[in-house]
Amino acid sequence: MISKSNPEDQPILWLALSGPFPRQALADYARYRVKERLQTIAGVGEITEGGSITRNLRIWWTPRRSTPAG
Q: Which of 4, 26, 3 is closest to 16 using CA atoms?
């Protein structure tokens, strides 16, 4: 996708979520519910998330060493 935006443009709407939920739950709700719905509105050019939590998964893998046939 190629898009054109003006860095001088100012946001027209700021939203903040809060509540008695873990920060990760609020970040997921904002990303997968609020953002997806706002993107479908005609005339919406870009939605940027700020301050959200991104899950990271680290895996340390050690391949099995082959043993001589016994």
A: 26
